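Quick check before the chapter quiz. The format below is the same one you will see on the exam, so make sure you can read both the input and the output lines.
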Amino acid sequence: MARYNHAQVEKKWQEFWEKNPINPKDDKKEKYYCLDMFPYPSGSGLHVGHWRGYVISDAWSRYQLIKGKYVIHPMGWDAFGLPAENYAIKMGIHPSITTKKNVENIKRQLQQINAIYDWDMELNTTDPDYFKWTQWIFVKMFEKGLAYEKEFPINWCPSCKTGLANEEVVDGKCERCGTAVTKKNLRQWMLKITAYADRLLDDLDTLDWPEKVKKMQAEWIGRSYGAEVDFKLENSEEKITVFTTRPDTLYGATFLVLAPEHPLVKKITTAEKLPEVEEYIQKAANKSNVDRMAVTDKDKTGVFTGAYVINPMNGKKTPVWISDYVLADHGTGAIMCVPAHDSRDFAFAKKFDLPIVQVISKDGKEEELTEAYTEASGVMINSGAWNGQESSVLKESAPEDIEKKGLGKKTVSYKLRDWVFSRQRYWGEPIPIVHCPKCGNVAVPVEELPLKLPEVEHYEPSGTGESPLAGIPEWVNCTCPKCGGKAKRETNTMPQWAGSSWYFIRYVDKYNDKELISREKADKYLPVDMYIGGVEHAVLHLLYSRFWTKFLYDIGVVGFKEPFKKLFNQGMILGPDGQKMSKSMGNVVSPDDLVADYGCDALRLYELFVGPPELDAAWDARGIDGVYRFLNRFYSLVLDSKEKNVAETKEMVRLRHNLIHDIEERFESFNLNTVVSGFMEYNNAMLDIAKREGGMDLETLKTFSILLAPFAPHIAEECYHLCGGETSVFSANWPEYSDKERESDEIKVPVQINGKVKTVLEVPKDIDKESILTEAKKALGDKLSGNLIKEVYVPGKIVNFVVKA
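Here is the expected output.
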């Protein structure tokens, strides 16, 4: 068997493709834009887990290329933000230096994959020519009232020493470093993503995305229909407004609960209760929103303010409590509690001995409740004029009834909150705003962009809530662009999500210094046809990118409303121990040695073969050996058959057409692991034929090479040429199959004696009954003994002989 020299073959064809690019820009062809979620340049470099997504996107890109399309497949670097800065602080080297070094290393590793990235399109979010336009987008949002400043308690990471958006807090901890998150009152820049809530939710229906991701975004946006209801404070004109999705249960509201941060809390709390309330507020301030929401019903805490409101429907005095499970930025920061019909409220009422009034019943009769009755339907009781109505019907009509009575209004509420868009760090895009005592907040003029970071020696976070930039007076102090008076620059920087929210647009027009993108190129090359990356970005990056795209559509920069037509989320490659790969776990597998020992193609194939691409899979070093053996066997078959030049048989033609059908069907369904197993199965079938026929026909082997090319490009190119291919395998057309040619001229028919299969015949599919019975008897020989009672032939299905001993 000829030995496949992967190092020699891969070097040969990489040099060939360098001189003869396989994907030159060609506007006469249909475009196809396939994009990876671009990486941040980690100091750890790439491991085999990172390869998976890149191999998937490259295989899909090469497939589109062979299908005759001009493929846009760029790569770049999400290099601003916490990961890069934290690494630089750890190493004691300026982030601009560590980032450049890390980019060079990861780019080297990416080139080992030999993906068809267009490096002329390469972007880096830290490049002033790039972030000029990130700042430009912010200025446009500011001009439209979508960027504004606000001081409020935000999630604060004591380790990263910066504020975090709600989406960056996972299980009460910083998504980046794992430190428990606290609260801190800070001045923040916000982006009004809530203005786009309905569009972000409704347009999910237009996307060819995994249902899981669409559901996650829908739940994060959290649109709820209901009513805002006003509860007047006892002996006061002051009122507390609550939002409820169950206005039909108003008569059962026996207490209110406010968020500890609600602006009315200290105002309404009685002197007697004030010390207890203030202590509770302080404790709540040190908890993250996620921690507060995660508390179980039985563990919920609360304090009575001493104040009462009047239930607007029945006029009853209703006590007002505070509890940290109510959040100030959700709804109105106040809820009405109906313990008879809400499990959480029921547990709270039982714990603090608060009244429970049933207002919905299965059969219209009141009963002693041992738990909340939470069915979506029932008969209204203890509800005045609403008694006897069906609760599910009343739920829809009650908001209008409440509005007519002047007790509140019908409304829609969202869980989505505006995006906290500033960070108290150095390594990020400077926010292009000047604070003027006379003019207020003024945007840096567009012609003065980009606003660059000052070159500094010390960039560590201050820990005070201010950015390190605040300590550089020569950069902070400036003149107001509007009045020319003394002013100060904004010292917070943008979050790491800023540059990644629009980078896919800039790729196709990166050298344009006059505008973010020409409308002509936007219309020609965008949006992205296939976007590939991890599901961990379902809410953060993907939601933010959709928001920015819709804004750019609104101001006429682009002509599309959604950035990514189709989305595929690959699963993770876990370490051999089944845990997520990380240096601290000691389970990282580097691709460098594997490429040296087995070659790029073998590693690419194993990345896909390891399991269904959408699921996590543990790395097993033994698996790549099997893939490498397959490549060697195919290569040897090609070399042997090349010398013999065997004429094709019907069996070979049939195999070829079935091969094309099966590989294409699996590929289009993104069952990539079964594509690889399909190659192995058909290679075994070809080897069997070659043993019988003295070799395999070159047309089938050439077809196999074309089909293999997206996955293992080097050996596919080599074998394609060995089989007589003249140009690149990537210039060959994707082969087509014929259903007629897939059909066999012969069929397999089981032969039975008294219902038990004794042998299987392979006969012409149009064989007549007499002939097949003759063949069956001959095949059975001495097995067919005794008195033959009956001969049965079900055409194309079965032969059965009924025999008596």
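If your answer matched, good. The mean pLDDT is 92.
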